Structures
1.
Amino acid sequence: YPPLSEKRWKKRYLYKKGKTRSMKDQFGRTIDYMRISITDRCNLRCRYCMPERIEWLPKEELLSLEEIAEICRLASSLGIRKIKITGGEPLVRNGCDRLIGMISQIPGIDQVSLTTNGILLADYAESLRRQGLHAVNVSLDALDPDIYAQITGYHKLPQVLDGLHAMEQQQIPTKINVVLQRGVNETECLALAELARHHAFDVRFIELMPIGHGKQLTCVSNTEVFQKLSDHYGTLLPDPDTHGNGPARYYTVEGFQGSIGFISAIHGKFCNSCNRIRLTATGDLKPCLCYQERILVKDALRSGDTKEAQKLLAQAIFQKPAAHCFETLSSITEDAEMSRIGG
Ligand code: SAM
Ligand code: SF4
């Protein structure tokens, strides 16, 4: 799409007779999804995401749960319909389940989902269902306990498997996110795909992105994973069902309860259908994962200027760049850890 001027964008996409008609960016993409990181802290140290030693952000710099809910309210008035809570590890923040309850009651918000490493999921499962959690993504890169510990720094695989079991019991729709690294866990892809045979979990392969520590590791392309799975299972058929709101392409395998998904940010750029903005735990809006650019909303919010905060949200939408530049490492300007951005 050729970009629109801000004046034409406002006229065409933002407001009509004082009401929001839709929320599109300067390239005409509908933006209806916001990922919110609620903490930079984590109970794992995945090698592509976080250094072993890290200084946590001071508590007062983080948005409070009430402030996050307020931003969701403003975003909903602009056309955001789906919220994903992420981190760091969102479940290590006290009140994560309560926040999900607060957001799911906001008029206009259709879905609240969670991305978690699964360690605390069993403890919170019942509460998350009661609070109205719509769906969960569990990050799990290996079923071999030693490889799991090598990647995450901890022998906590049994807790994750308990978490998955608890999601089944609570009947919360669950996707499993797998990031493969060359020479580390590429051998795990078939075992992980098998989870979709025996459970109604979608298993999704996400290409490693050159953000933070991911820059030092080697991505396994989804073309290669697709080939490996096709060689093993025979033809993978495109799944006609809708599975969510994101860029994943889904395929079915005969006899499987769940589907196999591929999120190919590097080898299958999907920027022309990007539908999201990000909010960091410190209240920065991020129009694109790849660039450092941030729009700071916390000060406006804390000074009670909700109109200004809403304007900043609209600005973050408008300013979304046309595409990421992960294929040209020298052009990536984001240098924060993924745990600070939220993935
Ligand atoms: N702690 C939660 C979890 O692990 O799901 C939520 C935060 S984590 C940053 C969100 C997602 O980002 C995880 O699925 C993780 O695998 C993914 N991630 C982190 N660094 C990545 C990278 N460099 N490339 C691709 N995905 C990455
Ligand atoms: Fe923690 Fe998630 Fe990053 Fe792993 S990927 S270190 S679980 S924030």
2.
Amino acid sequence: MSRNIHELIAKMTLEEKAGLCSGLDFWQTKPIPRLGIPSILMTDGPHGLRKQRQGSDHLGILESVPATCFPSGSALACSFDRSLLKEIGHALGEECQAEHVSILLGPAVNSKRSPLCGRNFEYFSEDPFLTAEMAVSHIEGVQSEGVGTSLKHFAVNNQEHRRMSTNAIVDERTLREIYLTGFEGAIKKAQPWTVMCAYNQVNGSFCAENDVLLDTILRKEWNFKGFVVSDWGAVNERVHGIDAGLDLEMPGNGGLGDAKIIKAVQNGSLREDVLDRAVERILTIVMRAQNEQKSHADYDRLSHHHLARKAARDSMVLLKNDDHVLPLSPTQNIAVIGAFAKNPRYQGGGSSHIVPTELSDAWTALQKAVSPSVQLLYAQGYSLDHDDVDEQWIKEAQDVARQVDVAIVFVGLPERYESEGYDREHMRLPQNHNQVVEAVCQVQQNVVVILQNGSPVEMPWVDQVKGIFEAYLSGQAGGEAIVDLLMGAYSPSAKLAETFPRKLEDNPSYLTFPGEGDRTEYAEGIFVGYRYYDKKDIDPLFAFGHGLSYTNFTYHNLTVDRTRMRDDESVIVRLQVKNTGDRPGQEIVQLYVKDTVCTVKRPEKELKAFEKVMLGPGEEKTVTMTLNYRAFAFYDAKSADWRVESGEFDVLLGRSSRDIVLRTQIYVESTTAVPRHYTRNTTLGDLMADESASQRLTSLMAQVKQAGGLMDALQDAPEMAMAMMRYMPLRALVNFSQGAISEEQIDQILQDINNLQ
Ligand code: BGC
């Protein structure tokens, strides 16, 4: 702590210290003018600025100042583009500086457990490695402008149903490997100024007072330096919270929490130095924000809009392109069908909802992009306000589709379907959207569907249409971006950051989401997203990592700089990627690792590295990726640490999780001695599987044999004898040897084995 902050704390009264630990109002911290401590302003987040003008709410209802609306998290992650995320971060930071905002409430990095979570549109991915990489770049970008971020919602906030009380029951390995990894990577690599704790409970303790999460893991293990802020209204017991490591309560509540803190310090149930610790963390950031605030900052609205357009273009996933229906040729007559073409769904509902500086729609953009000789027709197709099928509108859609060469149908999820605050109940599109697609397919062979939604949907018409673009919620420039791609000004380059299952029932959380009462069992464990579909060999509609381009890429010359390594070393993987088509394009090369043999169940493969590479026609580049310890490790709950088991690992390079093109193997040798915890009830099979332990058993087993008894009786059934022995606990040898082996002998052997290095 700097001397200055020490001195300030020494001068503060108990009331001032407690007061600093809760907001002044909905968005600001409390100033202490007599000590020169300013107030700082926080606002949402994550993909645009929601600075409210008058009135405050955390549901995105009241007006905010115009700001650039970038694509939401679920879209941006499909870009797999670290530098794009960083550039957006910079832009957001500039907008914050211009509006005197010190902390932007984002990024949101919760994992996508179920496609139904109402807030999936804000979250990046079902894969924690990709999530972490996206978050790191976002944070680095924003913070390089002298503006803080708030990594949220820590942790295991994967549903909106009962979001303020639900208790996520999740085992330690799953917690570490799936639900915490995104946070861990972001904190270790990018040190966000703040972390926002989630509303829910994890394993029986509210995140706002969960000392395992807030202290043991966040601060002690990951070395987080900033302050923890509550999600808006997440505090359960204020004093427990401050004890556990929740520093700032938001929003302000008229001093109710402060009074509890003061009382607790006065009656000795809260140590004053624990309060000082929270004050110190808040003050450090407040002072930093003050130092880094620029007095005359502004930003270029137009260039931010251009950046939003590039981001949208690079985030839209071409899911299907049969017969090269896309890109459209300049002479084709086009029918544009669907109200979303004129009134796009471009952002999500709730606290991230912002007022854009401008808004493009595909219909207007297309009119500008095509030559005047091209026939461009429009039909609304469905109502924006309800799901009922209107036969007249369906007929109109068919009429325009009949007259042209290609029909572009815009469908998706209206805002009433998905938002912060509630989850979806099913994965279907509104029936009037599905109906219009099917009706158009009856009269037109060349149908391209553009989807605008925050999370996967079922596609009953998937085999009837030739082209599908998943545009997600693509921000204020999404209309122009989709036209850039449709007309072939750019080649699509994004890949899915989540699996699209064929039907909801295929999803691993189907039986337990969103839980019963306040309890949600994460029974599928680590098998989330593609980790599950791969393991169960279930064909998804579209796989994690899938996405097409207008050009083609080949992969070759895969090399590793070593084929054996110790787990404290790293390996460099290289391959050549070539653009074999005739237009420029970007390819996302994905590297997955598979543990070939392991004592615990592991996924078929896990994403451990990726690179996005830009290639001109015919161009070839070398892509280089590095793998270290964590690429091979699993979380071993017994030793409470990450662990690599010696053995062969497959290194798989692919265009998607289901399109592996090249593979090689590497032997990784573990350098960690595995602590032994053998007991009298450890089975002989488990002991025999441990090479050094099994050596100590040899003489014991000879003694058992000599003693005869059961072993003699089993002589004629050797398989049964083997099975009996394998599953027999060590202690049973005493009885079966009819006392020839003593209890003391067993204890001695156990002591020897457990002490082996
Ligand atoms: C949301 C947060 C948001 C906060 C402030 C809460 O309801 O969960 O993500 O930052 O409100 O608007």
